[in-house]
Amino acid sequence: MWDAMMRSVDFYDGPLTDAQSGAVMYAVAAITDGPPEAMFGEYFKTGREGDVVYRFYWAKGGSFGCAEVLHPAEMDGAPPVVRGWVRPLSKVAKVDVDSKVDRYPVVRSEHAVKMRIDIHWDGGDEAVVLDGTGSMTTYSRPELEKLIRLVLDRIALLQQRD
User: Fold this and answer.
1) Selection from 15, 17, 22, 19 nearest residue 5 by Cα
2) Which one of 32, 52, 143, 162 is most buried, counting C-beta atoms within 10 A?
3) How many CB atoms lie within 10 A of CB 86?
4) What are residue 13's phi and psi, to 5 degrees?
5) How do residues 81-94 score in pLDDT, each as one tens digit?
6) Which residue range is the domain that position 51 belongs to?
7) Is 7 helix (H, G, I), strand (E, B) or coil?
8) Of 121, 123, 119, 142, which Cα lies nearest the Cα of 132?
9) Boundary residue ending a domain (60, 88, 116)
10) Are residues 122 and 73 in the same domain?
11) 82: closest CA among 72, 95, 68?
12) Residue 113 bridge partners (DSSP)
């Protein structure tokens, strides 16, 4: 779990101290109740207190969740606020899928397929967007692709049961 978090976001580049980053990891582990099957994090370069500075999406079993870390006040050494939500994947109304196919410049016969999914929930909650079509680090892309694939596979399994 720690590895997935560290590959997704660079805590060393962010505004949190080492102690605050450690507290975030423990808080997310408590929210996910141990290691999730897939996890992806985003870092938002914001300097305003109370803004979301990190967001982690995860999937485990039949659940999908989000944990957000709020930017602490300047010079505040206390653990930052971590809030989130968990929803059953069975409550997904639909998933929109977009893909982008890139050909490698050296070996023209090899292709990389990058996906974006928009998860729409029953009840009209705001859609969750997991976008792997843009540029990102080679460390974080596999984590996002794993999460996208897991969500698509779980939704397909749920539809087979219906």
Assistant:
1) 22
2) 143
3) 14
4) -90, -10
5) 999 999 999 999 99
6) 2-88
7) helix
8) 142
9) 88
10) no
11) 68
12) 101
Residue pLDDT, tens place only, 95-138: 999 999 987 767 667 788 899 999 999 988 899 999 999 888 77
Q: What burial letters (b/e) apply to 7-34, b meaning 16+ CB within 10 Å?
A: bbbebeebbbeeebbebbbebbbebbee
Residue 19 and residue 42 share a domain: yes
The residue from 88, 112, 127 where one domain ends is 88
Asked if 114 and 102 touch (Cβ cutoff 8 Å), the reply is yes
> Kind and range of the H or E element at 26?
helix 18-32
Pairing of strands 111-121, 63-70: unpaired
Count structural domains, the chain: 2
Over residues 20-39, the mean pLDDT reads 92
More confident residue, 7 or 76: 76
Residues 26 and 80 in one domain: yes
CA distance 91 to 154: 12
Q: Are residues 16 and 58 in the same domain?
A: yes
